[in-house]
Write the structure tokens for this entry.
Amino acid sequence: MANNFKKKLICIRCPRGCEIQTSLDGHGAITSITGHFCKLGDDYIRSELTDPRRIVTTTVRVKNGPHPLLPVWTTKPIPRDKIFELIKLLGEIELEAPVSFNQIILEDIFKLGIDVRASKSMAKVSY
Amino acid sequence: MKDIYDVIIIGSGPAGLASAIEAKKTGAMDVLVLERNSEAGGILPQCIHNGFGTVLFNKDMPGPSYAEYFTDEAEKYGINILTDTAVIDMTPSRHVYANNIISGFIELKGRAVVLAMGCRERTRAQIRIPGMRPAGVYTAGTVQRMVNIEGYMPGKRFVILGSGDIGMIMARRLTLERARVERVVEAMPYLTGLRRNYVQCLQDFDVQLDLGRSVIGVIGDKRVEAVKTVKVDESFFPLPGTEETIECDTLLLSIGLIPENELSLKAGIELDPLTGGPVVDDKMETNVDGIFAAGNAVTIYDVADYVSLAGYTAGKNAAIYAVKLKNNMIAYRHPNMIKITCGYNVRSVVPQYVSPETLSATGFTLGLRAQTPMEKNVLIEILAGPTVIKSYKENYVRPAEMIIKNIKPNEWFCPGIEELSVIEIRLIEME
Amino acid sequence: MGNLTEKKFDFIIAGAGIIGVIIARELSKTKNRILLIDKEADIGMGASSANSAIIHAGYDPIPGSLKAELNVRGNKLWEETASELEIPFKRTGSYVVAMGGTEFTMLEELYRRGITNSVPGLRILSRDEFLTREPLINHLARGALYAPTAGVIDPFTAVVAAAENAVTNSAVILTGTELKGLNLQDNKITGIKTNRGDFYTRWLINSAGVQADSIMHMAGVRPEFSIKPRRGEYLIFDASRISLNNVLFPVPTDKGKGTLVSTTVHGNVMIGPNSMEIDWPGSPDTTSEGLAEVLKNATRLVPSLKTSDVIAEFAGIRASGGDHRDFIIEIPQVIKGMINLAGIDSPGFASAPAIAERVMEFLIEAGEDLELRKDYNPRRVAPPCFHKLSHREKAELVRKNPAYGRIVCRCEEVTEGEVIEAIKSPAGARTYDGIKRRTWLGTGRCQGSFDYPRVIEIMSRELGIPVTEITKKGAGSELVLRHTKEKEAV
């Protein structure tokens, strides 16, 4: 008889945050999903269990701007296990103002077709 | 600087910018926005996380992006935003006094004024955590600013008091900036922020959450060395024998937001003790003619888009008031405003007054907050006396999520509604 | 604060609380070289910045004691001192409130004591007369002892003002400087050892508060005496939620004056203290039991006090002499060259100018030349306090100096100009708390939430040090540990 794993996850697709129960068989295939209010929950469980992803928002150093940091983000969710690697990569960058809104900071990270982009524009400030 | 402006808006956050744009669109000619920070956007520049724009723009974006949408729009409309300008006094006659290093101490007059100065954070002193006064006790917003704007990291090992969204978001932020979050401690028996933030900010990073516990002491003389936590009951009394000492060097307080109301008080505006902000009607007008208010300065919101919607209402009506005044007309206030009161499990409502004319002709947006969570199907009941004149079904209500309802004309109706003085709203759990 | 090149002084004062700075000021009027040292990162960090802020009238101390004599004399002298130094001081008068008949008879005893101590203007008020003066008082009040000469003062400004005036008249102040030992020759003090090296002096004046016993023991003075530190906790209320006209005391017990209810010069109602003997250092600042006790005592006088209106709490440590109830003010016999001041708890602040006067008398008796310098300037001009100015004065100030155009603390309306002034003035601040005490920023409803990052930036710029060296109250209390993107040392 194959092992039956049970997992409980909170869905993050909307603020409701349904607690969803899911059962997996010995091969890791999903055998049941209960507790979700809508289809988004079903979607979420399936992707979360195979390929959990998150949007990352953070800052990057910038020279010659009004502030030493520029807020940036991944615009789309990236694999959860790549978050700290991305942070490390972004930590090595020092941009130079001016920066335009939505400017690409890091292109096609981890070959996922996702760019890290500037969350705002930043003018150059001469001191 | 002009002698008199049509509309002066205090604050350039999601409420202030929205007010300014709508005021211009509605016909106000001279619109001036006063911002005490060195850049426009109010609190938005430090809110680098996403979650903004989902309602208004059907997009999910970070706070600074949301701010840029609005500042670009404001620029298109020729709205003047004066930064580095702190408003320090205001009179009921709409004289506004502000301080600026270039223009100096300036005296302005507005035909109408919109208060959009946002909120401040509850402090350690207000919940009286005993202990010494070491370096390393901060409110979450202050650390958010330091980490995201100035680039200062004030600690290595953090304990966060409060499971509201700001606390959880900072837990993630600090972890990504290679600090260690030892614990999030919450006095309520339930999460006070959004569940999705629990997953994305705490669970993802293995940050432990303690529910039903509070911080009862700060240890350390020059620097925080540890905090003492204890289990608390429903009345928040500490239960002896449940103490725990958590080593850390920084205590982050995320224990609530309070509308900023210093200026409101100076202008003689009536405040609502339930919200801490001004009493407003469906036009977002306060009890003082020509002074309007919107956003977190009125009541604490959780979605910036709804703050901007309230800003649109305030800006539009401020412009109407100003234009009427310019043409020597008096803006009309309905003589029989209906007071909206908080019934069972309703913590607060905004606006607190609505006119019968609005109910029948224009409709309005209602925001209400539940006092305690109800996880089963809930009925929002609108009562005129003992009669339920309208009800709405909600799948659940939680204090963390303000319930916003767009009430269309005649949606709330009963015979004799023009003579009503009170409408009560209550939340009933359905079986 | 201060430079280290000069090593020889005529007088060294150990402890820069109100007693130390006022003595420094007095001595700086003379042709002597004065050094004032304090081990903390700023002056006045002990009881002088955490007390009831009351200049007592003087009916409470036991007749014939030094406390009685110097309290009444000091009360009178504060008028001129506060005026010369531009220290906020208001003679509000004070009331000892009697609840019930027994307490009312005790008022009579206090009154008699006050007369013996030569306290001017004392009067016992009937219930009706008192109730009209203080509408918020508990209506069970039976009457009150009214002392018109009592007043409220800004204690930390008093310390700073006296220190600034001393420095302007060439006294040297060194903070972060701890007295470690004495240099003696033939049983006479010739100098002191500190963590910053040795200094030569002819006289050492011990005004070290809670540590006065350690210093006197170094000289072999009063080995049996020890300071018994006692903590007093206070609560401050939101000025917009409750305001009071008067300074109210309960009827005193043998533990002390009790928990008073008063209004500070900044307009906030303040209640406290309680009195708890503690182990020091290492004892917590405020405790939930202590604050609860203070609130309970205070609501007995003013029932409308609510915890929800509290905006701040703090505690001070009294340098009590334990069973030795009176001030110790003496030139000890067992050693030459020392003036010993110890056990200066309440009414220490009220007595301060009189204590300094007494010290000067001792020194003259001992043959010291205390001739006044020709260029001595008794006046100290207070820096601008932005929020107190009229609109026109504000406009003028910002025009003259744009730094006053940037608001740094929005609750108390404190500007960048004032922060810079607090750093640059003689006896200026080098810590965040030092700026807070001088400008009052961060003490309002937001308790520093808004000003922290701005003040850190200004301090870094004005002091010319990296932000990671900015402290709250001295080494070990740094506010910024690193910049966010810096690679941490492994």
Summary: The domain at 57-118 of chain A is CATH 3.10.530.10 (CPE0013-like fold). The longest helix of chain A spans residues 39-50.
